[in-house]
Amino acid sequence: MQTIPMNVDENFRRLRDRVETAARRAGHAVRLLAVSKTQPAAAVAALAALGQTAFGENYVQEALAKRAELAALLGRPDALEWHAIGPLQSNKARDVARNFAWLHSLDRAKLVAPLARHRPAASGPLQVLVQVNIDDETSKAGCTPGEIAELAEAIAAAPALSLRGLMTIPAPADLDRRRAAFRRMRELFEGLRANHPQADTLSMGMSDDFELAIAEGATLVRVGSALFGPRKP
Q1: What are phi and psi of 196, to 5 degrees?
Q2: CA 58, CA 84: separation in Å to the nearest integer?
Q3: 128: which residues sit within 8 A by CB, 6+ positions away?
Q4: 3 within domain boundaries
Q5: Residue 93: enclosing H or E segment and its boundaries?
């Protein structure tokens, strides 16, 4: 039997209030993406009942299994919007293209063709963010800032894909360094929009820094532990 993490209802209402307050202060709209990796389908269903519709998953097979369970729990799993947020391997491009609404982690041009080829026409374009390794960490996925323009052009040229913006995960440093990283990302985002005005999403900020990210321009925040509690090892 699946166990729903404690206080999910209370956590969601508190988190939603904090996001809305930060968004008002920043003067722009912000979407909340609930990061549901490692969480049971019952926890996703509980949040869906409260009005949360967008969920982020790192691992494709876990997400597909969870969606199958939700078909029985909700009876309307298509009402949820699934975002693939983990590093994308070439052999998972087909599954992502066929089963997700959004991809946050495109970081190399060779992924564009398989994503476009496998995207079902009936599903509409796959919404794509370019992941940027803003702090140049050797252990982290993402393109360099200098590679954004080329990737953006490749995505924009594929009718089965829709370029929506940028995503980043800054280095786990102090808040001042993270603020600087978020600020650089906003500058890169504004540069992207100069050539691709349809780009409207800057995905950055997680449980411990989403309010700072919103203040620096985030339009979508990815939150897991603040909703579900500490992740199980």
Answers
A1: -135, 75
A2: 6
A3: 102, 103, 106, 115, 155, 161, 162, 163, 164
A4: no
A5: helix 93-99
Domain range holding 97? 8-228
- Match 């869906």 to its residue by tokens: 48
State the total domains in the chain.
Answer: 1
151 occurs within a structural domain:
yes
Within a 13 Å sphere around the CA of 213, how many CA atoms are in the beta-carbon half?
27
CATH of the domain at 64: 3.20.20.10
Contacts of 5 (CB under 8 A, 6+ apart): 39, 43, 228, 229
Rounded-to-integer distance, Cα 97 and Cα 114, Å? 8
Owner of token pair 């990210």: 213
d(CA 34, CA 135): 24
pLDDT, tens only, 39-60 = 999 999 999 999 999 999 999 9
1 belongs to a structural domain: no
* Residue 2 counted as domain residue: no
| Residue-wise pLDDT tens digits, 125-147 | 999 999 999 999 888 999 999 99
